[in-house]
Backbone:
């Protein structure tokens, strides 16, 4: 079984297209997107097209802000899906004090619904062997058994904690979880840039 406990965009999982996998993340709206892709891809297409129309109904910045306000009032996968495709630079930021998404509208025009729908069909096919669950990475990694593979792509814990709501992430705890997996015979891959300097920390 392939495990990806910091699922994010699922780019690695979709490339691998594993026969049996668990994709997980602590962030509920994100997992709602992946679960919907898995069980009802047509609903995912409707989510995107409805918000794309709102975005283009008048002033696009006003449309974006309306969708963001709806998301901040009640975090959900449908709004979050469109915001990730239309926010500035595609970089999602959350305020620590209230958890609200703070990224402004991007300068680019989000992809057309028809193009998005084609991507949904492709990714639905590539991720048929996966199931998705909202859980902390500790819980997901504890499920891995000898011979399983865990891929970790953790948050930028020191340099960019505002991104993706990573303020509570503690890198040494991940190293402990990795050591526990390896002791059980689980194979672990970790991608992390240890050369970036943040303050006095490498």
Residues:
């Amino acid at each position: 079984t392939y495990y990806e406990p910091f699922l994010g965009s699922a780019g690695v999982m979709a490339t691998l297209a594993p026969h049996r996998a668990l994709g997980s993340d602590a962030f509920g709206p994100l997992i709602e997107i992946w679960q919907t892709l898995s069980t009802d891809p047509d609903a995912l297409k409707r989510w995107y097209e409805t918000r794309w129309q709102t975005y283009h109904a008048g002033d696009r910045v006003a449309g974006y802000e309306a969708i963001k306000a709806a998301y901040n009032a009640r975090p959900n996968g449908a709004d979050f899906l469109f915001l990730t495709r239309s926010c500035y630079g595609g970089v999602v930021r959350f305020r620590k004090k209230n958890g609200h998404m703070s990224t402004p509208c991007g300068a680019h025009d989000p992809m057309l619904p028809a193009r998005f729908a084609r991507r949904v069909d492709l990714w639905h096919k590539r991720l048929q062997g996966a199931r998705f669950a909202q859980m902390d990475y500790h819980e997901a990694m504890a499920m891995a058994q000898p011979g399983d593979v865990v891929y970790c792509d953790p948050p930028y814990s020191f340099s960019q904690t505002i991104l993706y709501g990573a303020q509570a992430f503690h890198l040494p705890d991940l190293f402990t979880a990795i050591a526990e997996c390896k002791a059980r015979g689980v194979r672990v891959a970790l991608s992390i840039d240890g050369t970036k300097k943040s303050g006095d920390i490498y």
